[in-house]
Design a protein that fits this description.
228 residues; alpha+beta; 2 domains; four-stranded antiparallel β-sheet; three-stranded antiparallel β-sheet
């Protein structure tokens, strides 16, 4: 290819990895002229696009509009918590059971089910859905895909409360959970679980966590999360 020099792929990879701007990918000319190299150019491009390589992602890191509180086994994907609480606000839809909001794992699906079944304004799920975070002021990247954490996702938040920085309040999660094992079964049309997160007075890194059923009309806090 005229006017396009071919470089040693290993050398260029190291230079690119430490010096190019976020999001920059290998050009088509570079890819086409390294066919004889013993380094897989497609792999190099994938590594350059891999956020865990470029940013060394870790729990507690400020990232994607909030704070990482969970990473999967690849280290490339996980969950981010907002840096602030919303509310207090009601869970909403007192008198209505929402069967689509029973997932312990998928807070996004729960949130969407609540929004579809509950037109009530100002509820916790709606606050999360309407939440927007911009980086670096009004001209920064906008994050608007937040949702209300499920029961399991909220437990992950509690496990990393030191990194996320929340305790001493009572929160909602999005899981409308059957509770036949309780001494007094919960009427899901009227009551859901509130989650109490406490910190030890002498050592804030030591937390306590318990839940109790209350009316859906009660006002509690919610911490939005998003997936990446």
């Amino acid at each position: 290819m005229d006017g396009v020099p071919c470089f040693n792929a290993k050398t260029l990879f190291m230079k690119k990895l430490y010096s190019i701007l976020f999001g920059l990918t290998l050009s088509s000319s570079f890819i086409s002229c390294n066919k004889s190299s013993d380094v897989d150019v497609n792999l190099l491009q994938e590594l350059l696009e891999n956020k865990s390589v470029k940013n060394n992602l870790f729990i507690g890191m400020a990232y994607g509009g909030g704070t990482i509180f969970y990473l999967d086994e690849t280290g490339r994907h996980g969950l981010i918590a907002a840096t602030e609480d919303l509310g207090p606000a009601p869970w909403g839809c007192f008198g209505t059971a929402i069967s689509g909001a029973r997932s312990h794992e998928d807070g996004y699906a729960n949130t969407q089910a609540i929004l579809e079944a509950c037109p009530e304004p100002g509820i916790a799920a709606r606050l999360c859905d309407q939440y927007v975070k911009r980086e670096k002021g009004d001209k920064g990247k906008k994050y608007s895909d937040w949702f209300m954490p499920s029961g399991s996702q909220f437990s992950l938040l509690v496990q990393n409360t030191g990194a996320v920085g929340f305790c001493g309040k009572t929160y909602w999660c999005s899981t409308e959970e059957p509770a036949g094992f309780q001494a007094a079964p919960v009427n899901l049309a009227e009551r859901v679980y509130q989650h109490n997160v406490t910190c030890a007075v002498s050592d804030p890194s030591v937390y306590g966590f318990f839940r109790s059923p209350v009316s859906k009309s009660m006002n509690r806090y919610v911490r939005p999360i998003r997936a990446f």
